[in-house]
Amino acid sequence: TQLILRPRLSLHRLILALIIFCLLSMEAPPLPFSRLRQVKAVDNSRTDPVVLVFVESIYSQLGQEIVAILESSRFHYRTEIAPGKGDMPTLTERNRGRYTLIIYENVLKYVNLDAWNRDLLDKYCTEYGVGVIGFFKANENSLLSAQLKGFPLFLHSHLGLRDYRINPNAPLLYITKPNQVEQGPLPGDDWTIFQSNHSTYEPVLLASTKSSEALSHFGPSPLRALHATVVQDLGLHDGIQRVLFGNNLNYWLHKLVFVDAIAYLTGKRLCLSLDRHILVDVDDIFVGKEGTRMKVSDVEALLNTQNKLRGLVPNFTFNLGFSGKFYHTGTDEEDQGDDMLLQHRMDFWWFPHMWSHMQPHLFHNVSVLAEQMRLNKIFAQEHGIPTDMGYAVAPHHSGVYPVHSQLYEAWKSVWGIKVTSTEEYPHLRPARYRRGFIHNGIQVLPRQTCGLFTHTIFYNEYPGGSKELDKSIRGGELFLTVLLNPISIFMTHLSNYGNDRLGLYTFESLVKFVQCWTNLRLQTLPPVQLAERYFQIFPEERDPLWQNPCHDKRHKDIWSKEKTCDRLPKFLVIGPQKTGTTALHSFLSLHPAITSSFPSPITFEEIQFFSGVNYDNGIDWYMDFFPFPSNVSTDFMFEKSANYFDTEVAPKRAAALLPRAKILAVLINPSDRAYSWYQHQRAHQDPAALNNTFHEVVTAGPSAPRDVLALQRRCLNPGVYASHLERWLQHYQPSQLHIVDGALLRSNPALVMEGIQRFLSVTPIFNYTQALIYDDSKGFWCQRVEGGRAKCLGKSKGRKYPEMSPESRAFLAEYYREHNMELLRLLNRLGQSLPSWLRQELQSTSWS
Ligand SMILES: *[C@@H]1O[C@H](CO)[C@@H](O)[C@H](O)[C@H]1NC(C)=O
Ligand SMILES: *[C@@H]1O[C@H](CO)[C@@H](O)[C@H](O)[C@H]1NC(C)=O
Ligand SMILES: *[C@@H]1O[C@H](CO)[C@@H](O)[C@H](O)[C@H]1NC(C)=O
Ligand SMILES: *[C@@H]1O[C@H](CO)[C@@H](O)[C@H](O)[C@H]1NC(C)=O
Ligand SMILES: *[C@@H]1O[C@H](CO)[C@@H](O)[C@H](O)[C@H]1NC(C)=O
Ligand SMILES: *[C@@H]1O[C@H](CO)[C@@H](O)[C@H](O)[C@H]1NC(C)=O
Ligand SMILES: [Zn+2]
């Protein structure tokens, strides 16, 4: 039942082909060739599967569209400029494949690869069962007809096509439903068709040529034939499966097929299920101005459409957000519309949208805010509106993100809110980056725009023309939102349901279009269940990533005027622990132009925000550790938390909030650090440290007791300096990072502090030679106070304990040797000077 396209279609074959097309039912697709063979695993043990995208340049249009679809789908990818010669990126890592799919923006770059690289790539694809997607975009220079180099496949370019249809036999079809023909001409005259008599090629999309003249170079047939412009290579020719597009992604159907091609070629590893949940919020119920509101007939239409939609989307229910203060503030007819809505209140879902449509961030006093909410609740109770949906939306997204903690508190106390939604996290644009998070027990879901705003009231006055709205529905942005998001909450407004009722038109058309062209199962759920579903699908989105509210104009506009973005540090001392960071903190605090964070009652001079559960408290909590810049003589603020250094999430979180911060790390010999940590734990009565010698701890094998292994990890792991620093360097520029030699800090702090001041560009330069004094009895440099006496850190610092045993030192020198070599290479790469202990360590161990 394969449809084989031949270079020269004879008349009877052509008619046969047409008949096959019309009659073919949707049988189960045959198992493709390479699925039957054993293939090596692509690496998905540590990370999600990654797509390798070869683009023409970082600005190329099609490349950006490919990436946009991958990003919207939350697929991981890596882009590379398609190599001409000799620089194919590494495809494997420790005998595992790095990429699960290869995409070429320009398939000619693929077929014209030099033999060496092509061989490399082909071997990779066959060994790991990796497929290739490629696009053929004709340009002025490309030939009209040619064989695709190395393949039994012929191309004919520069064609105008019409009447697009889907071959129901193409195995890759999953979301795409094949029983439609898109009548009429396809845009552009630069289509390419593929022809072959090899059974490895299965057409996916076919069209007729626009004019019979265009056929002249295929032979004499005067009939309009069907030509494949997207083909699927089943791997029967060379064992590699491919999907080739005879154009770019501009045409909407190509985006749909592209999504299916990704799913198919990755064995559904990069694929959503067919379920799509949608929720349509109607904000601003009662709020609209006279002339924009719903009348009785509009409410009837709303109910009718809702019923109609329920036939297509089970249980579909409009979700109405009300501001009670504006009830009955329209014309008489509109006031009757208000009453009609209330009369049918049990047919809808309801959520509070603030009594007077005020922006919550304007309320600093949580009880005043709660009072506003209570008014809306009383209104709901008086009018029998259900109050138990657990969902709310803030006017203008205010207070949701950036988080105004008062809003979360008031929502919970007045309404028992569990779910809200916003377009603002992490930013409004691009929409494909919108994500959810959970804060203070409230689940925040991303909210999608559907192209209808408060002022889009009339079809004919749609911005850019009504065609734009229809384009968005028919395969454009709105359609893609549903295609690429398993859960979509759409924002609309009361005014979209009066007058031309664009809201009804949009969603009815959208649902019909989706059902016509796709196998997607449209569904809905009440918000609380929707949120549960959302975080089941995307558990990695539970934790938020806080950003500076003033770095986004829209966020700044909904950030309380009583708060500021200036109560944030300019630099961080990140540790690791036991390297002298407390001494450094105290020295920095002596500086007249540097201000430390306030002490914490629990963690003393450290805040430990980016490293642990404190992060859940949000940035209001963090900022409370810093003075208002207006209250202090300097805004050159910093904080020190020594466990940031080796905490996995800390660099990412720090960089999200403090992208321009400078970072100080203090490094001593990692063996000494390990020993010091062990002694620290002994002093804190850690049984594992008390019951085991240091040597036993660091040499313990995997079968040792858990608490011993935990102690071992805390001794050894932070000392793997290079790999922790590399993680910081994924988020910060090398110029933002300064390595402090902890040994030198101890022996000659004035010198080190001078280097730090230069790095920070802090003025005036403070003279630490004058400010510090060596305390003979302590054996440390301390603050010089009145009368030239020394004021030193408390006795928990600079503990005295016996020397490390030579065996342990030898063991650790060996343990850290390779890690120290890596540190050497890293510091050389960064152009940072080498700590003296590192030189010594490498010299002594290299002879051992
Ligand atoms: C396909 O076409 C080529 C060239 O036209 C021909 O040499 C070859 O025998 C054909 N193969 C099949 C299977 O028909
Ligand atoms: C529709 O809603 C009812 C009541 O909430 C529920 O029992 C039923 O399972 C829902 N149907 C579907 C198809 O979701
Ligand atoms: C908040 O407002 C209430 C009522 O107006 C007032 O009693 C209370 O003192 C205010 N609280 C604060 C912290 O200002
Ligand atoms: C700092 O200034 C703010 C107003 O700018 C004031 O409300 C606050 O009390 C001051 N805090 C301190 C610790 O001086
Ligand atoms: C420490 O060692 C003592 C004596 O061997 C033993 O009784 C005790 O249970 C040990 N404690 C822990 C926490 O391992
Ligand atoms: C700091 O003070 C010492 C002693 O008073 C002096 O010798 C030195 O030159 C000063 N250093 C700088 C950089 O001003
Ligand atoms: Zn609103």
Automatic annotation (TrEMBL):
Q: In which pathway does it act?
A: Glycan metabolism; heparan sulfate biosynthesis; Glycan metabolism; heparin biosynthesis
* Residue intervals of the Heparan sulfate-N-deacetylase N-terminal domain: 47-265
Active-site residues annotated for this sequence: 578
Top-level enzyme category = transferase
Q: Which residues bind 3'-phosphoadenylyl sulfate?
A: 676, 781, 797-801
Subcellular location per UniProt equals: Golgi apparatus membrane
**Does this UniProt record's set of keywords contain Ion transport?**
no
Q: Where in this chain does the record put each Heparan sulphate-N-deacetylase deacetylase domain?
A: 275-479
The entry's protein name is [heparan sulfate]-glucosamine N-sulfotransferase
Q: Which organism is it from?
A: Anabas testudineus
